[in-house]
């Protein structure tokens, strides 16, 4: 019995999803969920992690997010979309990340529905999880109080 590509990919990315969802980060699986999250964030702050299979996501981004969320000051809402998996949801999320080009992994912080801070892939791939966490904590302290 052959396994379908979709089943294979779902099994392969499950632990990568869980790296964030076990932290209480909610997955956005549809464009409508992305729109609802942005609307909800107009009354607070929102972290949006564009997750990916890429090695820098596993080695730096997801651990950096986990460390940052241990800070006393954190965003009101935390969400994630998975690039290459929920393509429509990711495309919708990227509409709110303009003027930045598509980048995965990446991390966005919104305040009152507006993009306030953005970390692109090139700012993740050559930095340690501690450095990424430090950047996020600085943004949390600036925008989430």
Automatic annotation (TrEMBL):
Q: What is the lineage of its organism?
A: Bacteria, Bacillati, Bacillota, Bacilli, Bacillales
A UniProt-annotated Pfam family: Disulph_isomer
Q: Which family does it belong to?
A: Belongs to the bacilliredoxin family.
Q: What is this protein called?
A: BrxA/BrxB family bacilliredoxin
Please, which domain of life does this record's source organism belong to? Answer: Bacteria
């Amino acid at each position: 019995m052959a396994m379908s590509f979709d089943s294979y990919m779902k099994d392969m990315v499950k632990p990568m999803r869980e790296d964030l969802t076990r932290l209480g980060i909610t997955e956005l699986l549809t464009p409508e969920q992305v729109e609802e999250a942005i609307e909800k964030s107009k009354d607070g702050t929102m972290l949006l992690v564009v997750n990916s299979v890429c090695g820098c996501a596993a080695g730096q981004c997801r651990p950096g997010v986990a460390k940052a969320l241990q800070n006393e000051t954190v965003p009101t809402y935390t969400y994630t979309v998975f690039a290459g998996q929920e393509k429509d949801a990711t495309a919708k999320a990227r509409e709110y990340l303009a003027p930045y080009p598509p980048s995965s992994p990446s991390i966005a912080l919104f305040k009152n529905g507006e993009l306030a801070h953005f970390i692109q892939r090139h700012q993740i791939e050559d930095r340690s999880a501690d450095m990424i966490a430090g950047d996020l904590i600085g943004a949390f302290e600036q925008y989430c109080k």
